[in-house]
């Protein structure tokens, strides 16, 4: 059984409440429960923090023992050299995900400090972006 962790960054704890026209009305907990039922062949853990250093600490913690990291660093994607460096320093592959198409939004969201160090990037498919990332780990 593959061990995968989903790590969400700032404001993603507000899914289901925050800008439902962009992010939908499902909470992440509801979505995660559905994902675990749909993919019983994976051990899926979850971590969310609004604090950059906690995200880096979690990457360091899981980065040598998990089979994959699905990371939505939220706004830190566009600002955090530290998270990018953390990904570069670990062995576990990371897939960067975004619920919205960041290239269809404000220009500052077009830059990612995560992408150069990620196995791949999936964006714009709503919560399905996480499922696509999970499938990429289960098929490899």
UniProtKB/TrEMBL annotation:
The active site is at residues 23, 98. Pfam families: DHquinase_II. It catalyses: 3-dehydroquinate = 3-dehydroshikimate + H2O. The keyword Nuclease does not apply. Its EC number is 4.2.1.10. It comes from the Bacteria. The record marks 18 as: Transition state stabilizer. Substrate binds at residues 72, 78, 85, 99-100, 109. It is an enzyme of class 4 (lyase). GO terms for biological process: amino acid biosynthetic process; aromatic amino acid family biosynthetic process; chorismate biosynthetic process; quinate catabolic process. One of its GO terms (molecular function) is 3-dehydroquinate dehydratase activity. Keywords: Amino-acid biosynthesis, Aromatic amino acid biosynthesis, Lyase. PROSITE patterns: DEHYDROQUINASE_II. Pathway: Metabolic intermediate biosynthesis; chorismate biosynthesis; chorismate from D-erythrose 4-phosphate and phosphoenolpyruvate: step 3/7. Belongs to the type-II 3-dehydroquinase family. Homododecamer. Catalyzes a trans-dehydration via an enolate intermediate. NCBIfam families: aroQ, PRK05395.1-2, PRK05395.1-3, PRK05395.1-4. This is 3-dehydroquinate dehydratase. It comes from Seonamhaeicola aphaedonensis. The lineage of its organism: Bacteria, Pseudomonadati, Bacteroidota, Flavobacteriia, Flavobacteriales.
């Amino acid at each position: 059984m593959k061990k995968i962790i989903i790590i969400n960054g700032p404001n993603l704890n507000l899914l289901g409440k925050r800008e439902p026209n962009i992010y939908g009305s499902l909470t992440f907990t509801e979505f995660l429960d559905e994902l675990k039922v749909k993919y019983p062949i994976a051990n899926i853990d979850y971590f969310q923090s609004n604090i950059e250093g906690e995200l880096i600490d979690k990457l360091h913690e899981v980065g040598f023992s998990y089979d994959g990291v699905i990371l939505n660093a939220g706004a830190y994607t566009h600002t955090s050299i530290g998270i990018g460096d953390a990904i570069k320093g670990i062995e576990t592959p990371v897939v960067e995900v975004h619920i919205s198409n960041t290239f269809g939004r404000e220009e500052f969201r077009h830059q990612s400090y995560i992408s150069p160090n990620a196995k791949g990037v999936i964006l714009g498919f709503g919560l399905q972006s996480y499922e696509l990332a999970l499938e990429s780990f289960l098929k490899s």
